[in-house]
Amino acid sequence: MKNVIKILFLMLCFTISKAQQTTVSAVKYEELEKRIQEEKNKLLVVNFWATTCAPCVKELPHFMEINKKYSENPNFKMILVSLDRLVDKERVIKFIKNKNLTAEVILLDDIKRMNTWIPRFEKNWDGNIPVTIFYKNSEKVHFNDGEMSKEDLEKTIVKNLP
Mean pLDDT across the stretch 64-80? Predict the structure, then answer.
């Protein structure tokens, strides 16, 4: 009987953890801006990426290592903003699971208005990805255009962590 209960408990845990990894919110850029403004007293790392972007995929393991290192710090938060199309949401969910992405992932469902929201996040952003923007107390403190090394990522975090 004890073994049956243990097996049922493990199955429940597996189901719950699986469900948590397969949820991705689709948001418009105004909602993302609002989220950034709500993260007061934190260093917020916002990485724009896509599953079809080779440099994006290459840097994600570094981001996950750093996210794991700082995830217990209440002054730190990482959000991965997928620029995949909404119709590819299932592919994004599979990617999250296969790559074991631990940071929060959202899908920015606003491709048609890229010329509107890109300059709102950074006037020097040409639209290429990956891009990482660091916010401290909801104010932009660093913009990184292109792939980021683990060392540069950590250096930027340490420099700006409250």
Answer: 96
